[in-house]
Here is the input.
Amino acid sequence: MNRPPFGSDPFGLPQTGPGSGGRTSETTPQFYGPVMIPRIELCVEREAGKPTERTVVLEGELLRMGSHSSNELVIDDPMVSRFHCQLSRGGGGWRLLDSGSLNGTRVGGLRVRDADLPLPECRIELGESTVRVRELKAMATAEVPATPSFGAIYGASVVMRRLFETLKRVAKSDANVLIEGESGTGKELIATEIVRRSLRASKPLVIVDCGAISPTLIESELFGHVRGAFTGADRNRVGAFEAAEGGTVFLDEVGELPLDMQPKLLRALASREIRRMGENQARRIDVRVVAATNRRLEREVNQGRFREDLYYRLSVVTVRVPPLRERMEDIPLLVNSFLNALDATDKAHLFTADVFSEMSRYDWPGNVRELRNHVERRVVLETEAPSFRDEEGENEDESASREDRPDLGSAMVDIETPFKTAKDTMIDQFERAYLTALLAWADGNVSRAARKAQLDRMYLHRLLQRHSLRRAGALE
Here is the structure.
């Protein structure tokens, strides 16, 4: 399949490239045709140390192997983890990713965590089992809609348009949803779009950031408490599940949920009942749960940091959001959408074909959030020069100016104070001063402040909570 070149816009979306004059078009022609479905043959030649011959042919772009019955290929071997590894099909071929298995995954005798498979045929060793992998010619095709957006989410690549089709179906159901993806891929935005299209759209949406709340307060945040339940509980409090009655609870960064809290959440999801802290009375709840995490929960299950039964309660439907580096052809479309959102379509001339080419060679570890920050910075500074970090982690300006950076000075050092105490105090003072000035600049808007400081928004929330500069868990 031919992909559109960088800077082109065959989809008729907001067109802000050179010569467009900021004009927009609402038409969305059908650009792509059928897509072939990948097919692969997996032959188990050795299982738990014993010779065998078991062959399965599977179709799809993501296949999992492990001892748990939910895997596409189940291996009965005590040395194989429940979710041992997975195969995924991308533009460059099949890729093997170890899911944090306890005994590792080997290809050609070498232990690998993430590797491109040397197909058309190779062997994978898991525990005391061996699987021969052979790529087959695709036989079936699937129609992928040409719609390059899902609400405020944009993407013209095949992987994103398939994701949009999945999200449409997910939104119509009432099943719990788990959204997995790296930081900055837009998981919260996806959750919001799902809720907007669901049958519960007119009901409350309550957001809980599991990573920004103290472990001692997470139960109260989720289920509420009664007066006197613990020190400082001077009044009754309604938790997120009660507040969202009839609507949706969004558990952001659910992978950060403390292990001792997980059984309580599992019980609430299974029984559809909650108890406020300090109260014996059970309260019936009617909520849908949408959870998101930048961790791979299958790995967390293997490592014993996340309960397997809770994982399955949350992941009735799993949505995996691809990182930006796996859909580089979406960059021009995303840049156009950001320019429109920033009301800066007159700055489209800053994004030339050479700039897009340079962008395509960068990995974007911060994903779409980093791309938006880059676009906004370029618009503000009105520069056409690339400003990506090099392989050493710093750009030329940073390297050149390192010697010019001011020293903290010996006047700020008190050697009568233990080193660790003095260091923690200085860092605390710097963080508080920086965050106070940052919030003042952003008029209290945390998202804007995060873009300015080039920080992950959820991490900024946690910093603000730590320094009591903003109500814990607050979100725009």
